[in-house]
Amino acid sequence: MGKIVVIGGLAGALLLGGYVVLGNAEEAAPEAPAVETSEAVYIEMQPLSAPIMRNKRVRYYIHMTVSLQVAGEDAKRKVYQHMPRLRDAFVRDLHGRSVTRGRDDQSVDFAAVKARLLAQSERVLGAGLVTDVLVTGAIGG
Question: In terms of domains, do 27 and 60 share one?
Fold first, then answer.
């Protein structure tokens, strides 16, 4: 019976000690300043295709769905106004350079594709309108 009392006392002390430590830590932590964040706005583009080449011949195409994250409704309107030029720049980039990882024509380098498309959007639209490019789907065909 004595062991149960000791174990119960230790468990209670740990719980109480943890509460006191956490309670003091929460009270001592400064509050984060309120930051106004705008809702992210996304524009889903029509599918894009990129050739997968081997020996200077098209082996197959990869079809990708891409969404653009923009900095608000005003940016969304501006992107829509320039969508034909933006889509043309994307298609030219995807057809001008390989989208695969080095010599491996089986795996697409999505990080590089994302960076390239973001760079094209900044070239066509200017910096700050498109904040991110998301490849939301891809299929070979």
Answer: no
Place of tokens 């956490």: 22
> Do residue 90 and residue 132 come from a single domain?
yes
pTM above 0.85, yes or no: no
Indicate if 78 and 129 belong to the same structural domain.
yes
- Report pLDDT for 105: 65
Beta strands (DSSP E) in the chain are: 41-44, 48-54, 57-70, 100-101, 104-108, 130-140
Can you tell me which residue has the tokens 């889903």? 44
Structure tokens belonging to residue 90: 């994307």
Is residue 138 within 8 Å of residue 63, measured between CB atoms?
Answer: yes
Helix (H) or strand (E) holding 31, with range, is none
Helices 83-96 and 110-125 cross at an angle (nearest 10°) of: 140
Q: Range of 70's domain? A: 41-140
Total structural domains within the chain: 2
pLDDT per residue as tens digits for the range 82-91: 999 999 999 9
